[in-house]
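During the no-cost extension, the postdoctoral fellow (Dr. R.K.) reprocessed legacy sequence entries with the updated structure-token encoder. One reprocessed record is reproduced below for audit purposes.
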Amino acid sequence: MADTKKRQGFAALAAAGNGEDFSVIDAIGGIRGVVESMLPGFVFVVMFVVTSDLKMTIIVSAVLAVLLVLVRLLQRQTILGALAGLISVAICLIWAWNTHEARNYYMYGFLTNSIYIVVLAITMAIRVPGVGFLVEFIRSLPTEHFRAWLADWRGDRKLMRAYDIVTVMWIGVFALRLVVQVPLYLTNHVTWLGTTRLLMGLPFWALAIWISYLLIADPMRHHPKFKPQDDEDGDRDAGNGVEDKTEPDAVAATNANMDSGAEA
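Re-encoded structure tokens follow.
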């Protein structure tokens, strides 16, 4: 039961129908997750502004990212999220290093946000809202009878409408990032770009997760499939075991990592 209180990202949304208390802090990885997500980007901006030395900035940021993973290893804690973050930071740093331009540290974020927009837009076009698909997939893995599983939640008008709204909202979040940040990239305002990246990263992610919960929790609780979960069906659904192990960085990866989804 302790683990269910610490579900992160879309796994936290998948538990919305269980009557569990929702915590935005837990959903974005806790205080430690917030620090690990934002610190590399913060250090990159500060180091570059202070030193104007791109190589030194990249080296310090890379060392910091590696240390975050090593600390988790030494403490025998899960490193999946931190490792995904390390890979994302590494891609950003390599891009900046190879091009000799600090602003290219943020190019990876532009690409991931663009991909999210395209993928989510496609899911809306085919009437299978991406956020709904992901949340339901986490909640009850369709190992068989995929069409029946799909029809079950898509046939609930209120739940489907909530998933539509939430998916469009996430498209808006990713699009707004690009609208604000791309002009700063094109005009080479690295300091402002880094600052807006931080402000529109995890804070936007947290706000979107919270609003998503508010929109889908009630329709999910009233879905016939989920009503008996607190009774005898609860043991059966818990036996699926998928939601307990799913983390946010598994999304974008859309997100598994907070860096690709939250900080991007």
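Residues 1-5, 228-259 have pLDDT under 50 and may be disordered. The first strand starts at residue 249 and ends at 251. The remaining legacy entries will be reprocessed before the final report is submitted.
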